[in-house]
Amino acid sequence: QDSSDDIEDVSLFDADDDVSRRSKKSRIRHPVASFFHLFFRVSAIVVYLLCELLTSSFIACMVTIILLLSCDFWAVKNVTGRLMVGLRWWNQVDDDGRSHWVFEARKVSAQGGKTSSEAESRIFWLGLISCPMIWVIFAFSALFSFKVKWLAVVLMGVVLQGANLYGYIRCKVGSRKNLTSMATNYLGKQFLRQTMATEDQAAS
């Protein structure tokens, strides 16, 4: 493993150094994981939109969509999140029978040069955030158009993809306690800035 104190070769020209750094950040290191991160969830949306044109069997469409959503949930939770952005979450049961949710983020200093690339990070978060929003739109559309039979399928998409989104947001920002302290610190800083600005205006 590379340590943070290792000596690195430095380019004589800053432009060459910037280009090499950009290429490392923009390179997709896990193309297969990146592909399947989007494949299952996009396929489920495409099947939902085109299923009535392709077949008249509601059962076949429902089973296909649920299978794609289940494969997407497993792949994103267990594979793509760990490889693409260094995040993972899971549930474990202790000796007392209590269930605990664990949210873990990879430490950059411990991995050295094995940090996630910007391209993979963008692909991961774009797919993770946009697809649940699309399923929420589908849910409102099915509700207002009185397509009750499709509502269960759409809610399945919202729950499965929303669970992954919630889990990885918890991994990224920390626990709810940490999130609350971050918000409190931010509001405190904003209040302090406004107070100082008001005092400066009064003094002038």
TrEMBL record:
Origin species, per record, is Dryoscopus gambensis
Q: What is this protein called?
A: Golgi apparatus membrane protein TVP23 homolog
Pfam families assigned to the protein according to its UniProt record, in alphabetical order: DUF846
- Which parts pass through the membrane? 31-50, 56-76, 123-144, 150-169
The record's listing under InterPro entries reads:
TVP23-like
Q: Which GO terms describe its cellular component?
A: Golgi membrane
User: Would you kindly state one Gene Ontology biological process term found in this protein's UniProt entry?
Assistant: protein secretion
Q: Which gene encodes it?
A: Tvp23b
Give the record's membrane topology: Multi-pass membrane protein
UniProt keywords (A-Z) are: Membrane, Transmembrane, Transmembrane helix
Protein family membership: Belongs to the TVP23 family.
Q: Please give the chief subcellular localization of this protein.
A: membrane
Q: Where is it localised?
A: Membrane
